Amino acid sequence: MALPTVASLCRALGKDLHPADGFVIPETPVTAVHVSELVDPTSYVSGGELLLTTGLILPTSRIEWDGYVSRLKSIGIAALGIGLGPRYSEPPDALVEACKASGLSLPIVPDPTPFLTISKTYWTARARSSAQHFQDEVAAHRALIDAAASPDPPAEVLRRLARAVDGWAASLTSTGKLDQIHPAGMVEEAEALQSEIERLEVAGIHS
């Protein structure tokens, strides 16, 4: 299941979430949207979040912003969204420079957009992705059932399985040798992989 990204949220929200000047918002996956005004929120996030703050009680000096941003970067925050209005009319220069120096994305939530708008958009995208993932799984399952009832089940199952995983699929004989593969042009890659597996099995379980 594909997670919404910082960039996809910016595209979906338009003027309600956009990059600060000088920032290019990446396609970094977002695991959740979290709101915190703490100077050190690292105990309440696990990494991958879009963290939203108005900066009400956050530091003002460059060295303090550096420490704040460094803490967020160390736990893998996807991006820091600064909400304008309650304290700042624009992102403070010290925060902008700290984010640029650390490589942390800095999108803006303009006044008067509520943080709830960002959260709702995120979870709507997650729900849509989950529904699509389920539909794709059901469709793949039906395709495999149809393949099993076709005139040439082994070949058709491999063909549809390869399509479902967007790769290739192979069947092996009872002795573990390559039997059939789809697409046929992947024989050399499959044989090389099989040789590597055999080498690892000899090397032992830790490999």
Can you tag this structure with a few keywords?
two-stranded antiparallel sheet; 6 helices; 207 residues; single chain; 5-stranded mixed beta sheet; alpha/beta
Largest sheet: 5 strands, mixed
Share of residues in strands: 5-15%
Overall geometry comes to: elongated
Rounded radius of gyration (Å): 24 Å
Spans of at least 5 consecutive residues whose pLDDT stays below 50 are none
- What is the overall number of helices? 6
What is the first-to-last residue Cα distance?
29 Å
The pLDDT mean sits at: 89
Total beta strand runs: 7
The main sheet orders its strands as: 1-5-4-3-2
Order of helices and strands: HEEEHEHEHHEEH
Structural class: alpha/beta
**Can you give the helix content as a percent range?**
40-55%
Give structural notes.
The protein is an alpha/beta fold. It has helices at 6-13, 62-74, 93-102, 115-148, 153-164, 187-203; strands at residues 18-19, 32-35, 49-53, 79-83, 107-109, 169-172, 178-182. α3 links the parallel β4 (79-83) and β5 (107-109). The two termini are 29 Å apart. The model has no long low-confidence stretch (mean pLDDT 89).
Which helices and strands appear, and what pairs or packs with what?
Elements: H1 6-13, E1 18-19, E2 32-35, E3 49-53, H2 62-74, E4 79-83, H3 93-102, E5 107-109, H4 115-148, H5 153-164, E6 169-172, E7 178-182, H6 187-203
Parallel strand pairs: 2-3, 3-4, 4-5
Antiparallel strand pairs: 1-5, 6-7
Offer a concise description of the structure.
Helices cover 45% and strands 14% of the residues.
